[in-house]
Amino acid sequence: MSLDSLSMILVARLNEMREKGISKGPEHIISGVKPAADGSGPRCYLEGYGNREFLRMNSNSYLGLSLHPGVIAAEEKAAREFGTGPGAVRFISGTYGPHVQLESRLAEFHGRQAAMIFNAAYAAVMGVLPQLITDKTIVLSDTLNHNCIINGVRLARPAWKYVYRHLDMTDLEAKLHACIGHAKRLLVVSDGIFSMRGDFVPLHELTAICHQYEEHFAEGIVTIIDDSHGIGAFGQSGRGVEEFTGSRADILVATLGKALGVNGGYVVADKSIIDYLRETAQFYVYSNPITPSEAAAASQALALLDGPVGQEMLVRLRSLTRRFEVGLLQMSLEIIEGEHPIVPLMIRDTEKTTALVQYLFEHGILATGLNYPVVPEGDQEIRFQVSACHTEQDIDFVLNVLNGFSS
Predict the structure, then answer these.
(1) What is the average pLDDT across 242-251?
(2) Domain assignment of residue 232, yes or no
(3) What is the C-alpha to C-alpha distance for residues 130 and 187, in angstroms, rounded to an integer?
(4) What is the mean pLDDT of the chain?
(5) How many domains are contained in the chain?
């Protein structure tokens, strides 16, 4: 059959997206990485730009562990021992020793009974939510929750869904109260760190509200937090919003692909929940896991995080983040301050955001502009992301370039 008609429709839609300024455009291809040298952190090379060097200020690798020699060595060793791929889904013949070891270490790291890994954090959320939401469940979700939570809830088809105002615990409680008598189970789901802003859920307040109302629901209230941007980058020891707020969710989802520098996602919870999810979560049951070598690399990254190397990295990360924030504030630029290494520079205009991103690129800096509808109209921003592999020289370089634009 001819695809001519469909192609015309899709081309028109792409053109419409470009005209509205919401198209992501062509992807830059990283063709090489230059190691840290002469007081600067790593630089990358892009295909089509020759020997020009670029500083990445838009990477989720908050600790720089993807380039750590110990993590690379662990992955190489496991690849030689087990091969490059699992060869099957977990329940057939795709479970390897490194998978089990990683799950054990993740459970211990988070103080939970059990853990299970997925091939991505997106898949983890999409796999977990439908198994815990029934037609007698109401879901409460933060307005700025990640796309994976939004789609996970859609896939689950709950009895009803309420969206509460961003981080507004008064609105959450009001909507929770309105659910009394209308559901057997209530599920409250939120990002831990919100990826567009770097702010965090007040988990201690959220859980306290849930405990107050739990007796009104026959099957209780379940709290689920996706702390993919928090683990390894937030909290004194990198245990995310749970550590920072001194509280705990019933179920925690996170990623191996950001601060831990590898690939994959995971969930930690009580053993009964993990046992159930292992049998029913379709994104787990019917998808290959991460490779054994990736699991081994993630275990090594977790060991580094949970030791003196990790502590040193976290201290450095907080220091560099604050240095960057102070420099931006001294230029009278608007930011959202916080301890997390996501530093949003609020531009609040699509054309200006696009122009500044291009200016940074021309000066060897990779940064991500976020325009409507990715963020609400008026919240257009450039999301800078600091890494422990950056140096003070790198931070000052970015600040100097920004100062040139603003002047």
Answers:
(1) 98
(2) yes
(3) 11
(4) 95
(5) 2
Residues 97 and 39 in one domain: no
Domain CATH number, residue 82: 3.40.640.10
Rounded-to-integer distance, Cα 160 and Cα 137, Å:
7
- Confirm if 89 and 83 have CB atoms less than 8 A apart: no
- Please tell me the pTM assigned to this model: 0.95
| Whether 235 and 183 share a structural domain | yes
Which pairs from 333-336 meet CB under 8 Å and 24+ separation?
Answer: 333/402, 333/406, 336/197, 336/198, 336/199
Are 280 and 343 in a shared domain? no
Q: Which residues pair with 12 in a beta bridge?
A: none
Pairing of strands 251-255, 221-226: parallel
Query: Which residue pairs, CB below 8 angstroms and at least 24 apart, start in 307-310?
Result: 310/63, 310/232, 310/237, 310/238
CATH number reported for the structural domain that contains residue 373 in this entry:
3.90.1150.10
Please check whether residue 392 lies inside any domain of the structure. Answer: yes
Cα separation values, 207 from 24, 32, 201, 267, 305, Å: 37, 45, 11, 19, 27
- The two structure tokens encoding residue 6: 């469909």
Domain of 320? 29-58+308-406
Residue that has been written with the tokens 């089509």 in this structure: 48
What mean pLDDT comes out for the span 68-76? 98
Per residue in 81-136, pLDDT (tens digit) is 999 999 999 999 999 999 999 999 999 999 999 999 999 999 999 999 999 999 99
Q: How confident is the model at residue 1 (pLDDT cuts 50, 70, 90)?
A: low
Residues 105, 155 share a domain:
yes
406: confidence class by pLDDT, cuts 50, 70, 90: low
Q: Are residues 212 and 226 in the same domain?
A: yes
Residue 69 tokens read as 């020699």
CB 187 within 8 A of CB 222: yes
Residue 282, domain member (yes or no): yes
CA 247 to mean position of chain CA atoms: 20
State mean pLDDT over 138-162.
Answer: 96
- The reply to whether 238 falls in a domain is yes
**Same-domain check for residues 317 and 239:** no
Asked if residue 350 has pLDDT above 90, the reply is: no
Q: Is 389 helix (H, G, I), strand (E, B) or coil?
A: coil
* 287 and 325 in a common domain: no
Going by DSSP bridges, is the β-strand pair 365-366/251-255 parallel, antiparallel, or unpaired?
unpaired
